[in-house]
Amino acid sequence: MKIQLQLALDMPNKKKAIKIANQTAKFIDIIEAGTPLIKEESLHIVKTFKKRFPKKKILADMKTMDVGALEAKLAFDAGADITTVCLSAPKETILSAINSAKKNKQVMLDTIGLNKKEILIKLKQLKKRPLYICLHRAIDEKLHKSITNLLACIKDIKRLTKNKVKIAVAGSINDKIARQIMALKEKPDIVIVGSAITKAKNPEIIARKIKEILK
Predict the structure, then answer these.
(1) Percent of the chain surpassing pLDDT 70
(2) Which of 207, 198, 188 is closest to 2 using CA atoms?
(3) In angstroms, rounded to a whole number, what is the distance separating the alpha carbons of residues 191 and 203?
(4) % helix / strand / coil in the chain, to the nearest 5?
(5) Beta strands in 47-186, from DSSP E residues, in sequence order
(6) Can you tell me whether residue 74 is helix, strand or coil?
(7) Which CATH architecture has domain 4-214?
(8) Region 73-82: what's the mean pLDDT?
(9) Does 151 score more than 90 pLDDT?
């Protein structure tokens, strides 16, 4: 199974984000316009990424909580291949976003703020599921919660969805955690890395290193 590497560009600085994307693109499968970047630059940054990297999947991290269809359409119209909706949102919001995804566009449900039990309950309530689910430990949770608890959800989600949903993991992932992930029996489909790459002195070297670990 090929594990994809997603680059999370979570900084409100367009020039820096584009520079890092240029430096690391050959090792990245999905380029994420992070929530802070979108809030600072609007969805125009998604258009910029799609124009500069037409062969890459572009994800707009909208973290939608309401008006699912509208926000998904805004992201898709801007060129995003994937947009995010919070799993904690009302199921009507989630389903409206999923139903609006057409022509190879996809929704990723973000589990941020939910524990394992809550994640599984919410997924069971959905009559229609997205292609992607992101098990997400928030940056603010880093000092208080281990990512191990989220990784333990992978097996349960795969069983619940009969392996029809692709699983991403995110939350201060570095090369050490990437190795832990590769040691798991049940592995995710996507590993999302942000600050380990974006705050490195040489982002290209770290991106290459993590990509090699994921192989």
Answers:
(1) 97
(2) 188
(3) 16
(4) 45, 20, 35
(5) 57-64, 82-86, 106-110, 132-136, 166-170
(6) helix
(7) Alpha-Beta Barrel (3.20)
(8) 98
(9) no
Model pLDDT for residues 21-46, shown as the tens digit of each residue: 999 999 999 999 999 999 999 999 99
**Phi and psi for 169 in degrees, rounded to 5?**
-125, 140
Task: Please report, for residues 18, 32, 35, 63, the alpha-carbon distance to residue 50 in angstroms, rounded to integers and kept in the order given.
Answer: 11, 11, 17, 19
Q: What pTM value is reported for the model?
A: 0.94
Residues shown for the chain: 215
d(CA 59, CA 66): 18
Q: What single letter denotes the amino acid at residue 83?
A: T
- Report DSSP state, residue 25: G
Q: Rounded to an integer, what distance in angstroms lies between the CA atom of residue 28 and that of residue 207?
A: 8
